[in-house]
């Protein structure tokens, strides 16, 4: 039995989210949901997440899980909102503890204690209705990266983008290009026909956003991987990462997402605040 997968693309952050349903039981999970966020006004909205909930209700699904492939640095997660609205279990990879330790040096304390209902270990399996979900540890972009494999589908987060875009950056705290190469090798050892669901797409001119590729296609045509051994990949990845700007939403996103997609506790005036640590990130101008 294979899952029914409905992709949703959030154009503002180039993010793919997925609604995954068991056809036998109508049990569902949402992978990597996005919260709408106006950075200039520091205002959040739930239009994108509400579209996912509308699909759940229209198809009479039971949302059992909200699953994060990692702590995202380029968008705010709607996981906390969806958990609040539905009672779904919020899950992420066990490596989130290491991400939290790195973030504590920026924000003055760990943010993720108790924020997630499940912290999945490498190789752990759990049921989504009549389907089995296998958790593959795929760190490198971040220490907590996981891939959720369900039948012939694998939700790879930011390890692999469409083949003409390549792979994720590895210059965040705890990231490592050699580790990512080995994680990708683990994914590309899956059967050739396995459908890989990307976490992002940054499409070049002339094509629209693409949600999926196959193992065989990635092995043959990924512009960062094809024909390269580990040393060549690491050299390419590290050189490229040195040219990339800091993601626009990195500092807000880390605080929000490490807390399980929830706002920090409000101050006495009832307002929640995000911190901006000065001169702690990026290269000097």
Detailed description of the structure:
- This protein has 285 residues and is an alpha/beta fold.
- The protein has one domain: Metallo-beta-lactamase, Chain A (4-Layer Sandwich).
- Helices cover 25% and strands 24% of the residues.
- The strands form three sheets. The protein has a six-stranded mixed β-sheet, with helices on one face. Strands 9-10-11-12-13-14 form a six-stranded mixed β-sheet.
- The longest helix is centred in the first third of the chain and has 12 residues.
- The protein starts with a strand and ends in a 27-residue tail after the last helix.
Outline the secondary-structure elements.
Elements: E1 4-10, E2 15-21, E3 27-31, E4 36-38, E5 43-45, H1 47-58, E6 62-67, H2 79-86, E7 89-93, H3 96-107, E8 118-120, E9 125-128, E10 131-137, E11 146-150, E12 153-157, H4 177-188, E13 195-198, E14 212-214, H5 215-221, H6 230-241, H7 250-258
Parallel strand pairs: 3-6, 6-7, 7-8, 12-13
Antiparallel strand pairs: 1-2, 2-3, 4-5, 9-10, 10-11, 11-12, 13-14
Helix pairs in contact: 4-6
The CATH superfamily is identified as: Ribonuclease Z/Hydroxyacylglutathione hydrolase-like
Chain-averaged pLDDT: 95
CATH topology: Metallo-beta-lactamase, Chain A
Strand content: 15-25%
Shape: globular
**Topology as a string of helices (H) and strands (E):** EEEEEHEHEHEEEEEHEEHHH
**Which structural class do you get from the secondary structure elements?**
alpha/beta
> What is the CATH architecture term?
4-Layer Sandwich
The low-confidence runs, each spanning 5 or more residues with pLDDT under 50, are: none
Instruction: State the name of the first-level CATH class.
Output: Alpha Beta
Distance between the termini: 54 Å
How many separate helices?
7
Number of individual domains: 1
Rg, alpha carbons: 18 Å
Q: Please describe the biggest sheet, giving its number of strands, its sense, and whether it closes into a barrel.
A: 6 strands, mixed
Classify the helix fraction into a percent range: 25-40%
Strand order of the largest sheet: 1-2-3-6-7-8
Number of strands: 14
